[in-house]
Every structure is written in structure tokens, then in C-alpha cells.
Specification:
alpha/beta; five-stranded mixed sheet; two-stranded parallel sheet; 4 helices; 38% helix
Length: 117
């Protein structure tokens, strides 16, 4: 897993499969980041090939933490198997999902950082 932090953007890039074990590791890594108001948290799922239902836990926890801290959390580069689990659980309507990392940066540069409603 890679974590990069620049200005007000925090980038998480999990890899492989997000199941119970990897999900707990992801949660732990995300908990190491101290949220600051108006940060943009990006979870880039480009290198995640599969996620089971237990893998949703760190994403939901991160979204809750982000919102409580005044941050915005978005997902990008979601592959078909991961998108399917998000759709089946109807979490695709809860998360902001972008096709690419660049799409996020374009949207954010056009509008001020605001919490997703």
C-alpha cells in the first residue's frame, strides 16, 4: 500500500484483494492519517482486483471518519468486480466515484472543496 500526502490531498492506493485481513490492514493505515478539515481523501482502487463484503468495512469507516472531520472522501479507478460489490450493497450511491484520478483533480480545481452531501 502506498500513502502520499500533498497539500490538502491524501491518497490511498491499496493493492490486490481487499478481504478481511487486507481490510484490517487498510483500516490501520488509514487510521494513521490525522484528518484535517477540508482535506480531500482519495482512495485509488486501480490496483485492487477484488473486494469482498468484509473489504467494505474500511471504506465505510474511512468515509465516516472523513465526514466527521470535515474531509471529503472519493473513490477512483474502480474495476468491475469492486464496482459490482459497491452496487450490490448500494454503496455506489453513498460514495463519490470517479473514473480516474485526473477526473477528481479536474473537478476539485473547478470548484472549492466542499463536503459531499
Amino acid at each position: 500500500m502506498t500513502i502520499a500526502q500533498e497539500l490538502q490531498v491524501v491518497l490511498f492506493k491499496p493493492q490486490g484483494t481487499i478481504d478481511l485481513q487486507c481490510g484490517m490492514a487498510l483500516s490501520q493505515r488509514m487510521a494513521e492519517v490525522v484528518p484535517q478539515p477540508d482535506q480531500l481523501w482519495i482512495i485509488d482502487l486501480a490496483e485492487v482486483d477484488f473486494m469482498d463484503s468484509s473489504g467494505l468495512v474500511p471504506l465505510v469507516k474511512a468515509l465516516t471518519t472523513a465526514r466527521q472531520s470535515g474531509c471529503r472522501l472519493v473513490l477512483c479507478n474502480v474495476k468491475a468486480p469492486v464496482r459490482l460489490i459497491l452496487e450490490l450493497t448500494q454503496l455506489d450511491s453513498i460514495f463519490e466515484i470517479f473514473n480516474t484520478y485526473e477526473d477528481i483533480l479536474n473537478i476539485v480545481s473547478e470548484q472549492p472543496l466542499a463536503l459531499a452531501s
